[in-house]
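Record format v2
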Amino acid sequence: MPKLQVVFDTDPGIDDAMALLLLARHPEVELLGVTTVFGNGGIETVTRNALHLKDRFGFTAPVAQGAAGAIDDMAVPHAAHLVHGDNGLGGIALPATIHATLDPRPAHQLIIDLIRQRPGEITLIAVGRMTNLALALRAAPDIAGLVKEVVVMGGAFGRNGHTGNVTPVAEANIFGDPVAADIAFGATWPVVIVGLDVTKEVTMTPAYVDALAATGTDGEFVRDIAAYYAAFYRSREGIDGFYVHDASAVTYALHPEYFATERGRIRVVSEGIAKGQTISLPEGRNFPPGAWDDRPLQTICIGVQGGRVLSFYRSIFDR
Ligand SMILES: [Ca+2]
């Protein structure tokens, strides 16, 4: 089996770090690039975290810094300190010195360069705001025809009863830059959306995390960063544990058979009280002419075998 060739666009972020660990450790993944985007923290914070994770996990892929705010929008972005802590990694102590250095290119240029270098080969996994993807598409529309697949963590379509997490209808990654998401879902590259519809069906419990920690330093790291995250979910959602958002998107890229999907044409609401809502016109349904016409069919995850996702994540700790 050829390795899955991955570019990872991320805003680390506790669950981002957990997903990046999966990419760094899985033997069937070739991690080619890591690009950062504002979101779980400001761009300086999440980029510092990505470089720290490069040191910690020991991967060789370049890290490039991306967008500091939403596309075409100069508003100061809101960062998710409440969920991910002031330093974006649950407040754990970080070393004063970081050895990894930044790639000089902006994130969207690194994405373009890597896709053009390996036409038809790259899976772009995006688990933050879609800003870098939209900037890349604007600068180089040809990449839409050159990428193998784009797997996105974001959005919510109401399947399994799951709607928004930052408003009643909006998921955070989409709410943070709905215009960019609409551009990314409207491009003619094949997109798979791993949204709250499935990520809220996968929960890591304290017992699961304790078992990871017992395997060694990687597991201890996950336990340490996840403590803050679990406390947030306990107070906000009343659950014992936390949902597996970004690592579920990485899991889809390697094991799509764990997921049930449907096809649809996607639009994103860009303003008003429903800002950030993702709306699919399912394949085969017909309506009078409207905003979904001429949009490409994309794939939405609507079901997941959560136990298999958890076993798969666990497997990287047993090697
Ligand atoms: Ca993320």
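Residues 119 and 278 are 29 Å apart (CA to CA).
The chain is about 35% helix and 20% strand.
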